[in-house]
Write the structure tokens for this entry.
Amino acid sequence: MIYFILIAVLFVLIIAAAVYAVRQKDLLYATIATGIISLILSILFFLLQAPDVALTEAAIGVALTTIIFVITVRNTVRMEEEGQSKEKFKSAVK
Amino acid sequence: MKKFVVILLLAVVGYYTADTFFGIGFGSPHFVDGVKAVKDVYITQTVQSLKVSNAVTSIVVNFRGFDTLGEVTVLFLAVTVLGSILYKKRHRVGDRSVLFSASSVVTAGSKLLFPAILLLGAYVFIHGHLSPGGGFQGGVIIATGFLLMLLAYENFSVGHSVLSVVESLAGITFAGVGLLGFMNGGTFLQNFLPTGILNDLFSGGIIPIIYIAVGFKVAAELTGVIYTVLHEKG
Amino acid sequence: MNDSLFSLLDYGVYGTAILLMLIGLYGALVKKSLLKIVIGLSIVDSGLNLLIVTLGYYKGGTAPIFSPAYLKHPTLMVDPVPQALVLTAIVIGFGVTAVALALVIRLYRHHGTLNIDEIKNLKW
């Protein structure tokens, strides 16, 4: 019974992290959510009796992908900006 | 309007995909009794004729070894394209994207952890045919160790020419061992060394040699990627 | 009651993998910032790898490694061929994400913005 509850909690957590990563406006929080998705995916691979795949996903998804995303966010914008296209176009045409 | 059309399209695609996969079933055998599947041939040949403990390693290196050569080539191509897109005019050694060095806990701890991480990564790719692991896993662990040192200290640098030489030598070893198979057996990447006893370190023919070469190559490539990305100034 | 609870888990694994792919595709098609599109593509990769590994699982099977304990009591083994394919797919997915992020940095330096509507309006 408790086995079932633990696996159901893992499924709910991974879907919640994916929805949070797509809808959040602060881009740094979205990259942390992507790292959490890779971590829970590595646990699921271990439960499906695949240890090689779990090692690879934990090493590549959590460490290297997160550092590349964080350096990109640092070199570009931090918040996702929306709704400025029409104003800028009109002011540029004048 | 656009969001509504996208949600409708994704719902239709999701419904038909889910219908297909629920019809296949979860956990039940897919083949009729009596039909010899590919996985049965691979599993029995792994322990009887190759004498290797890890079935996934024997598939990746021996039975489907040409796909691994293609994957190593694609990774090399991606790293080259990344280095040529983020091109700066003059690569000075002192410029950093991270402007301050970390606190004293991180600097003291990473000096202790760095040899342990290197040892773990080397152990994982040398014993790839005996336990879960292999070339790709060990190479990524070594790259993570270098990332820790690059983030903790300001003036830690790895020579760019050393990384290029190690990566090129490892790639030449992989292709060279394949060509040696031509001269002895008859096909590319054929196993020509004698296979030893099960669960021994020197067993499985050319499998440990290829995995050691892949481990060095992946470690050098990913350290180069981290180094290029960290030296990027806006 | 035990049987029906665990059969809910069977549908749960397939449902999670397909739902991950759909959420990632939604993020890649609707969002306007270039970095969100790259995040969406990375989530699609993760969902697809989970789906392929789930296809090779047998109930009551064990990991495909011939340890000395296994050689004394042999039982059923899970399918090792999808695991070898997914090993390659994870590494190539990381390579594609790294090249896409390098392109995003270059585009930001040239245009000054990450909004795809504004980048389409500037004709040069």
About this structure: Chain B has a mean pLDDT of 87. Residues 2-230 of chain B form one domain. Helices of chain B lie at 2-24, 38-50, 55-63, 65-85, 104-126, 135-152, 160-184, 207-230.
